Every structure is written in C-alpha cells, then in structure tokens.
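Exercise 7. Given the encoded structure of a 252-residue chain, write a plausible sequence.
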C-alpha cells in the first residue's frame, strides 16, 4: 500500500495539519501562472505522475487531497499504467454541474462531469485524462442535488444508488477506482465540512462498503477528498485523524 498526499484544495496549498496522514509521497506540483483551471490541472498532472508507478507495480495507492477534482489525476495515473477503470463515486453531492448550469461557479461541483468529458479542453486534455463514458461512473448517495443536476441524472447513463446498495453486483464491471468525498458521511458525525449535508450514512457504513469493494480484488486505487475547514478544535482534529488512519489502511 502506498499513501499519496495531495495537500491542495483546488490551487490552494493546505496547511500541514489539515490532512494528517503518514504519506509515502507528498505531491508538490509546480503551479503555472495560468488561469484557475490550469493551476488545478497542474495539481492533477502531478497526482497522475505519482499514481502511475504504484499501479504499474501492482500496488493500490490511496490518494488524499482537499477536493474532488484531484480524482481526475488519480484516474489518469491509473490509465497511464495501462488500466481502464470505472469509478464508484461516494459523495453527498452530485458534482455533475457544468459552467453553464452552476449557480455558484464552484469548480469542484463539476468534478464528475469533467471526468466524463465536459469542458475537455479546460480539464482532461491538459493532463492526459481519457474521459470516462457516463455509464462507467456510479454515484453512491448524492443526496443533495440541485435541480439542474437532478435533470441531468434523469437521462444520463451515470446511475445513482444509496450507499447501502453498493456491492460487487451493482457497480460497473472491470477495474475500479473508489472516490470517497468525506462529506458523504452524515454532517452530524463529521463537523467542520465545507459543504455539510444532513441525513447521510455513518462513517462505519461508508468504510465497510469500501472494504467490501476492495475485497473483490477489483479496486486499483482509492481517492479520498477531505473537504473540511481548518480547525483548532481538539475533538474535531482527533475524529478526523482517526477516520483518515482507517482509510489509509483500506487496501491492506
């Protein structure tokens, strides 16, 4: 198992105590002077470069970062190793906005759509990601959808199911990347999230579901987004550290 730390939320470098994991590799991208998309894709390119040799050697990397857009870098790294994965996307949100539908303009809310080819010239093409077909991405939970997202998913080949229904029989066939946005966990159990959503599954339920997928032998990488605000609260820090330590050992 190799733990890769990408200490960024979009192009913002996070503090050293924000995502506390014992990293084997810490990604240190050189950010260009380009636009926000360019800087985000610089982070993705560096992530892909860290992931590829681990997967090529038969390992299962666990990538930790501060936002969901890094997942494209993880998937690109797996692809460069000669593996064509599907993605099981655990998230409280749909992340299926585009520049045209987003009310906030928050790029992280477009993470699934750019993974499946939206705004290709701004995202995938800049770091060599081959976009996935819609049916190769499964949304697990996504309980908080904007109207435009619900409308898109009503006709999209990307399916959405509850976390409790995720199993070997309900995920796409072939190799899998697990993407786990920690805000999928009920906000009452994990305070301090940037985008908290009530009435979600417990951390134990989410971890157990990931463990069942890993037990199939089909998981080739795990990508974890920890989109929380910095905190000095000792209770929050302890809870975060415990959860991250559980996730770091998932493939083991």
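Solution.
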């Amino acid at each position: 198992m190799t733990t890769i730390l990408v200490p960024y939320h979009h192009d913002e470098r996070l503090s050293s105590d924000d995502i506390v994991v014992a990293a084997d590799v810490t990604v240190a991208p050189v950010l260009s002077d380009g636009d926000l998309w360019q800087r985000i894709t610089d982070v993705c390119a560096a992530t892909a470069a860290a992931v590829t040799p681990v997967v090529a050697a038969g390992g299962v990397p666990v990538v930790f970062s501060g936002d969901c857009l890094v997942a494209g870098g993880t998937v690109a790294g797996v692809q460069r190793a000669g593996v064509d994965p599907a993605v099981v996307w655990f998230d409280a949100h749909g992340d299926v906005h585009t520049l045209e539908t987003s009310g906030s303009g928050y790029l992280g809310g477009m993470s699934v759509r750019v993974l499946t080819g939206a705004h290709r010239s701004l995202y995938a093409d800049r770091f060599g990601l081959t976009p996935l077909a819609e049916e190769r991405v499964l949304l697990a939970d996504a309980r908080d959808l904007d109207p435009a997202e619900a409308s898109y998913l009503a006709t999209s080949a990307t399916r959405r199911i509850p976390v409790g229904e995720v199993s070997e029989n309900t995920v796409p066939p072939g190799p899998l990347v697990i993407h786990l946005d920690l805000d999928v966990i009920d906000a009452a159990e994990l305070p301090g999230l940037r985008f908290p959503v009530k009435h979600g599954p417990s951390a134990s339920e989410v971890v157990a579901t990931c463990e069942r997928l890993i037990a199939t032998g089909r998981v080739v990488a795990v990508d974890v987004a920890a989109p929380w605000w910095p905190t000095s609260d000792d209770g929050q820090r302890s809870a975060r550290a415990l959860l991250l330590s559980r996730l770091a050992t998932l493939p083991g």
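Remark. Residues 36-56 form the longest helix (21 residues). Students should compare their own answers with the one above.
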